[in-house]
Specification:
Order of helices and strands: HHHEHHEEHHEEHEHHE
Strand order of the largest sheet: 6-5-4-7
Number of domains: 2
Radius of gyration: 21 Å
Number of strands: 7
Distance between the termini: 19 Å
Helix content: 40-55%
Number of helices: 10
Low-confidence stretches: 1-6, 8-18
Strand content: 15-25%
Mean pLDDT: 81
Protein name: Putative transcriptional regulator
């Protein structure tokens, strides 16, 4: 058997046999992991508590508790901001604006281990995708799963995830929504049936070739060739 084929099968077996990575086991709670993802992904953006609650899909009390834990750890900080509503009356005329003071939370970029923590979260995001492999395999015939774009800090790539195979689109959407919820961010993904992918590869489709030639993480590959 060719060496490349043996190595590929070993890699596939490794993905199948790996125990799914669970970030909350390391950080103590799922809410804390989602908060870290949110703040470290958007280090310059302030969030108010109810907005945070919606984005991380967690109970308000749990969010407040974990926010305080992150403040105590100097990972985020609390700031006071102002919101000016822009409501119009029935005639479309702007009402007199009321200034509302709200407490906001923002990443503390001066935290001495900010870069290290951000790098760790990105690596854990990739490991967390092992559960995505399992979900997609259960949704149909998964042939290829590639992470790129956001997962490798490449903003020049228009997609974060490439999925190739014959998969239930409904279950695939559910799997991606689950991943977005875990990472507290929107994920751009591209799905292609196997035959379409092979055809676009044969005709040297620019989009497909650019994805295969860029830096990437291959989580699953059952095709007859390496990518």
């Amino acid at each position: 058997m060719p060496k490349d084929s043996t190595e590929k099968k070993q890699q596939i077996a490794l993905v199948h046999n790996m125990k799914p990575f669970c970030a909350e086991n390391l950080f103590g709670s799922k809410t804390r992991v989602r908060l870290l993802n949110l703040f470290l992904e958007h280090p310059s953006r302030p969030f108010y508590v109810r907005e945070i609650t919606r984005k991380v899909d967690a109970q308000l009390n749990s969010v407040r508790r974990e926010l305080q834990n992150l403040i105590d750890s100097s990972i985020i900080k609390e700031v006071e901001g102002k919101i000016i509503p822009t409501e119009n009356d029935q005639n479309g005329v702007a009402k007199k604006a009321k200034v509302e003071k709200k407490k906001f939370y923002i990443t503390n970029v001066d935290c001495p281990f900010f870069e290290e923590l951000r790098g760790m979260i990105k690596k854990m995001a990739i490991l967390s995708n092992e559960s995505l492999v399992k979900e997609l395999q259960e949704a149909g015939d998964l042939c290829l799963l590639i992470l790129t774009g956001h997962f490798i800090d490449n903003d020049d790539v228009s997609t974060d995830v490439l999925i190739v195979g014959d998969i239930s689109e409904k279950k695939m959407q559910e799997a991606m929504q689950h991943l977005e919820s875990l990472l507290a961010r929107e994920i751009n993904y591209t799905y292609m049936p196997k035959e379409e992918f092979l055809y676009r590869l044969e005709v040297k489709d620019r989009f497909v070739l650019s994805l295969l030639q860029t830096d990437k993480v291959v989580l699953a590959n059952t095709l007859a060739f390496s990518v």
